[in-house]
Amino acid sequence: MAQHYYVVSWDQLHRDSKALAWRLNAMRPFDGIVAITRGGLIPAAIVARELECRLIETVSIVTYDEEERGEPRITKPPTAAGDGTGFLIIDDLVDTGTTARQVRALLPRAHFATVYAKPAGKELVDTFITEVSQDTWILFPWDTEPQFIAPIARKV
């Protein structure tokens, strides 16, 4: 179980994904983008729009069940990306690097970028925007919803 939680709003994710696109813009052109599902889908769409990249492929690797990590399983390979030459891999987060190692093995010649990175995995990606501590669990906007919280005074 995580010791800390970091809540990312839709607005913040959009700003951070756009910041990633700014960094990647100097490396253009890319032939296509490989989004790591599911977390990389929305950042990949934002980056694809900003870089005017129309070819988006996906790779599906199942690693987590809620907060429990398991053995990675490739459930959909990124066939159109070949060995990754000319492709940009996008994910929301590199954590321990388990998924990143699997994708790197599939696409060794691609440029790997994530919006967020933890210390254990950040050396596996070429570009990222924000580093968070290893003991922090990021709550992405697709994992949360607004709800009423009682005032502090009522909790005493």
Automatic annotation (TrEMBL):
Pfam families: Pribosyltran. It is found in: Cell membrane. Its main location: membrane. InterPro entries: PRTase-like, PRTase_dom, Xanthine_Guanine_PRibTrfase. It comes from the Bacteria. It is an enzyme of class 2 (transferase). Gene3D superfamilies: 3.40.50.2020. It catalyses: IMP + diphosphate = hypoxanthine + 5-phospho-alpha-D-ribose 1-diphosphate; GMP + diphosphate = guanine + 5-phospho-alpha-D-ribose 1-diphosphate; XMP + diphosphate = xanthine + 5-phospho-alpha-D-ribose 1-diphosphate. GO terms for molecular function: magnesium ion binding; xanthine phosphoribosyltransferase activity. Xanthine binds at residues 95, 138. Mg(2+) binds at residue 92. Keywords: Cell membrane, Glycosyltransferase, Magnesium, Membrane, Metal-binding, Purine salvage, Transferase. Pathway: Purine metabolism; GMP biosynthesis via salvage pathway; GMP from guanine: step 1/1; Purine metabolism; XMP biosynthesis via salvage pathway; XMP from xanthine: step 1/1. GMP binds at residues 95-99, 137-138. Its EC number is 2.4.2.22. NCBIfam families: PRK09177.1 (NF006613). This is Xanthine-guanine phosphoribosyltransferase.
